[in-house]
Amino acid sequence: MKNSDVIKALLLAAVNEIAANPGKYAVNPGRDFTRNRKMGFHDTLLMLLTMEADCIKEELYRYFGRTTHAPSKAAFYRQRRKLTSDALANLLFTFNCRLHKNLYNGKYQFIACDGSAADIFRNPDDADTFFEPNGKSTRGFNQVHINAFYSILDRRFTNLVIQPGRKRNEYAAFCEMVDAAASGGPPTIYFADMGYASYNNFAHVIENGQFFLIRCNDKRLGGILGRKAAGLKEMDCRVERILTRTQSKKKRSRPRLSELYRHICQAVPLDYLDESRSEYDISLRVVRFEISPGCFENIITNLPEHEFDFEDFKELYHLRWNEENAFRDLKYPLCLKAFHSKKYEYIVQEIWARAILHNFSSAIISKVSVDSGERKHEYQVNFAEAFKTCRDFLRIHDGRTEMDVEGLIAQNIEAIRPGRTFARQHRFKLPISFCYRN
Question: What is the pLDDT of residue 423?
Fold first, then answer.
């Protein structure tokens, strides 16, 4: 059996597991999904996974075939309305549990954390998502913010926290996902950019018995070290800090260690300081290395020195960029720029569905070998085309149609040109919206 058939079987098994207890994921248990219809619970989930950037009628024809027996748009609206918000979230977790995990040195899993905004249907009356006219848009726009955990070595999403654009809080989302991570698995190293460098984030990872590797700027590094970072050369040292809410030296339990204390003001979250615990001890490893003449990278971590030496960080710190590529794939080949609803809860449904489709496709693509032959450059899979192939493959459910998935993916390849860089384009792009009643 081909790998693509195995991965599809695993996803369908996960869908069947969820569909075996539809009442658990129904808005009205005991009433929703109890009657036989053209589009049942199983088909509703798969329909959400395979939607592209077209109108609902065309999406229905693609999935069920262009026949008079295809369900109507109204039938689809009624069925998706019955799903609770956690139906697709649990499908992602259930599917991921069935997939093999790749580990670094056979021990650690690498999880990157980042966030990305998604533009949705314009609605100035929605105070939680609407942004007033600015340099990006003269009419204003609405956004949701997607916070994601992404397995770097497996190229798949492991968890999402979706927030209204006006209520985005990446610090809180990071802590929520760290605390929700399943215990008992392999040790995890969380990668994050400098926007996540905070004592509270460090503490949540440490309290969960895991590890982190988070970039920080010179200002934040100076605060941790107690001196300005400008002018510092390469370094790898361990710093011990005592965090407290009070600035009074008389209230410190260890006045002889006054140089180790750091004041955390009341406005800054630190979940492990309260009335019963006035001080919190934290041990951090600070790594600073030069990436180009005069340009330095700062890393805050708690990784042990005997397993990760100074040179290892020069290779590890940039791995987080893989998640940036994953967000690009979600928005374009997987059509996250096109939502089939105006309602916030249905938009959340589609974001989870795109993440599941991404994981399904990545599991197939990862096993496709590309023969570079005698060419000037190394070649890799064209991921944009590969995602489209995998989506069409998942849409097949008649038991007769066959598709050479691996062959099609291997046929669409592109050259790898290391060292190429492009400036990020900061411009507003209108979302593709469909004027549906929902």
Answer: 65
Torsion, Cα 335 337 339 344, to 10 degrees, reads: 130
Distance in angstroms (rounded) separating the CA atoms of residues 103 and 188: 9
Separation of alpha carbons 227 and 219, rounded Å: 10
Q: Please report the sign of the dihedral spanned by the C-alpha atoms of residue 58, residue 10, residue 161, residue 336.
A: negative
Instruction: Name the token pair of 125.
Output: 């009356």
Q: What angle do CA 146, 147, 150 make, to 5 degrees?
A: 115
Reported as a single tens digit per residue, the pLDDT across 172-199 is 999 999 999 977 889 999 999 999 999 9
User: Three-state DSSP class for 15?
Assistant: helix
Q: Can you give the pTM of this predicted structure? A: 0.93
Spatial neighbors of 271 by CB under 8 A, at least 6 apart, are: 175, 200, 203, 204
pLDDT number for residue 429: 60
Q: Can you read off the two tokens belonging to residue 6?
A: 């195995």
* Residue 16 or 250, more confident: 16
- Dist CA 79 CA 72 (whole Å): 11
* Per-residue b or e along 282-310, where b marks 16 or more CB atoms closer than 10 Å to that residue's CB: bebbbbbbeeeeeebbbbbbbbeeeebee
CA distances from 41 to 18, 61, 207 (A): 9, 18, 39
pLDDT of residue 305: 94
Q: Say if strands 261-263 and 379-381 run parallel, antiparallel, or are unpaired.
A: unpaired
The answer to whether the CB of 205 falls within 8 A of the CB of 125 is no
Residue with tokens 């698995």: 185
Burial class (CB in 10 A: 0-12, 13-18, 19+), 109: buried
> CA nearest 162: which of 356, 344, 341, 348?
348
Q: Which residues lie across from 111 on neighbouring strands?
A: 151, 190
State mean pLDDT over 297-315.
93
What is the spatial distance between Cα 152 and Cα 267, in angstroms, rounded to a whole number?
33
Q: Which residues pair with 150 in a beta bridge?
A: 112, 157
Mean pLDDT, the chain, integer:
91
- Whether 428 has a pLDDT exceeding 60, the answer reads no
User: Cα angle at 278 between 272 and 280, to 5 degrees?
Assistant: 50
Break the chain down into helix, strand, coil percent, rounded to 5: 40, 20, 40
